[in-house]
């Protein structure tokens, strides 16, 4: 694997003025990606623990809603 420089070479990049400026109406050169700088991802589970926390959240929401509904009914009666 060769190292890719993220900086464009001004001598070989079209649309650059001397000194690296971009004339009006030109699009500046895009950044290059640097895949060699990211860590290798070896573990990425697609699913697993998400059902447990979601169940707990739903149960808590239902209990809180039931409490406020009961409280409103007590105040009305």
Overall description:
With 77 residues, this protein is mostly helical. Helices cover 34% and strands 0% of the residues. The chain has one helix and no strands. It has one helix at 51-76. The longest helix is centred in the C-terminal third of the chain and has 26 residues, at 51-76. It is elongated, with a radius of gyration of 29 Å. The chain starts with 50 loop residues before the first helix and ends with a helix. It comes from Streptomyces tibetensis. Residues 1-51 are annotated as: Disordered.
Helix count, per DSSP? 1
User: What average pLDDT do the residues reach?
Assistant: 75
Q: Termini, distance in Å?
A: 76 Å
| Low-confidence region ranges | none
Helix and strand string, N-terminal first? H
Q: Summarize the main sheet.
A: none
Let me know the number of strands: 0
Percentage of residues assigned to helices:
25-40%
Helix/strand/pairing category? mainly alpha
Strand and helix map with partners:
Layout: H1 51-76
Question: How would you describe this structure in keywords?
Answer:
77 residues, DUF6480, transmembrane, membrane, 34% helix, mainly alpha, DUF6480 family protein, elongated, 1 helix
Could you give a short description of this structure?
Residues 1-51 are annotated as: Disordered. Keywords: Membrane, Transmembrane, Transmembrane helix. 34% of the residues lie in helices and 0% in strands.
